[in-house]
Amino acid sequence: MKKNLKSVQVRVFLILCLTITLIISALVIINNVVLEAFYKYSKTETAIKLRTEINRYYNEPIQYNIKSELRQIEIKNNMNILIEDNNDKIIYSANNEMIQSVELLKKDNTVRTIYRNKEVEIKSINMPISSKNLILVSTLDNGYNLYIKIPVTPIKESVRISNKILILIALIMIFISAIMASFVSRKITDPIIKLNKITKKLAKLDFSEKYDVTDTDDEINTLGKNINEMSDKLEATIGQLRKNNNELERDIEQKSKIDEMRKQFISDVSHELKTPIGLIQGYAEGLLENVNDDPESRKFYAEVIIDEAKKMDNMVKKLLELMKLEYEERKFNDEKFDLNKLIKEEIKRETVLIDEKKITIEYKPKKTMVFADQEYIQQVVSNYLTNAIKNCQEKYGEKKISITLKKRENNKIRLFVFNTGNQIPEDKIDMIWGRFYKVDESRNRENGGTGIGLALVRAIMNNYNNKYGVKNLENGVEFYCDINLKGKEKIEDEVQ
Fold this sequence. Notes:
Structural class: alpha+beta
CATH architecture of the domain at 331-495: 2-Layer Sandwich
Number of strands: 13
Largest sheet: 6 strands, antiparallel
Shape: rod-shaped
C-alpha cells in the first residue's frame, strides 16, 4: 500500500485532485465573500449613474417621453424606479411592490444606510418573504424624490447555484483527473521505470540494456541519452580496467612463477649436486694429497672428476630446460620432418649399449612426416629409448625393445616404446613423471641417470597439449605419447 502511494501515478492523481479542490474552494469563497459585495458595489455605481441620467431628463429643454425612458432603464438594469413630486405624489412607479418598498422605507426607522454622499443615500431594506433590497434615495434638481430599488436576493441565489455548479465541476474534474493522471503518469513513468531498470543493471555492471531514444526533445529523453552514453563509457572503462587487471594478474603470476622456478631450481640443484660435488671434492683432495703416486691411479682420479663434472653440466642443462618448459618460457620451432629417420638415428646412437645388453630391437621403418619441434621430439624419443634400455630385462625367454607408430584421430600419431622387464608399481606410476624421481633407488650412478628425462617428456607433451603415459603389460612396460602430423593452421585451412 505504501509502495503504491509512493508511485508517480498516484502522486500525479493526488496533486491534480488537491489542485482542483483548492481552486474550487477558492472560487466558492470568492462567490460567498466577494461576489455579493462586488455585485452591490457594481449595482450601486450603476444606480448613481442612473440618478444622474434621470436628473438630466428633467433639466434638459428637450422633451423626453420620461415614462418610456424610465421603463427602458428598469428593464435594462433590472431595477425598479419610483418618482414623487414635492407633495409626495407618485409621478412614476412600475409596480405596487416598489410602492410598498418606499412606504416601508419611510415608516421603518431601523432601515440601515450603507452609503451616503451629497446627492444620494443607499439604504438596505428587508422586504417580506425574505426579500432583501438596496434602495437609492435622492432628490432631483427639480425637487422630485427619486427611489431606485436594487434587488440583492437574486445574487444570493446565484451564489448558491454557482457553488453547486462548482462542486459538480470539481467532481467531474476529479474523474477526468484520474484518467489524465493515468495517461500522463504512464507517459512519464514508463520511461522512468525503464531508466530505473537500466540503472539497476548498471549498478551490477551489466551494460546489456539501453534506453530507446526517441525524437522527443524533453528531459527524460535527454536523460536516456546521457545514461546510454554513460553506460558505453563505463563499459569501455571497466573493460579497459579488466584488461589492465588481467595483464597485471598475469604479470604477477609470471613473476610468482619465476620466483617459484628459482626457488625450485636452487632446491633441486642443491639436492642433486651434493653427491657429484662430494665425489669431485674427494677425488680432488686425493690428487692434492698424493694418495696414490702411480700415474694410473692419478689418471683414474682425474677421469672421475671429469666424468662427474660432465654429469653435473648435463644435469644442470636439462634442469634449466625443464624449468623453461614447465613455465612456458620456451618457444617451439615447429617444422615438418621425418619421424622415422629421427627414430633410426636414436637407435643407431644407442647401438653399442643395446649390443652390450644383448637387447633385440623391433622396429619397422616407415616414412612418417610429423609437424613439431624436431629437437624436443628427439629428446622425447631419446628419453623413452634410454629409459627402455636401462630397464630392459629378460621375460619369458626374450629381452627386447619394441617401437611402434600408430595413426590416431585429430591428425596425430602415437609413439609406443615397449621393453620387457619388471612392471612399475601401480602406486608409483604417476610419480615417475616428477623430476629426480627414480623407481629403483638402488641403481648405481653409472646407469641410474638424472631422473629428469621423463619430467622433460611430460613438460614437452603438456606444451603441445598432447597425451602421454605408461602402461604395465604382462611381460614389461610400454610408454607412449602423441605427436602432431600437421600444424594447427594447416588443419584449419583444410577444413575451410
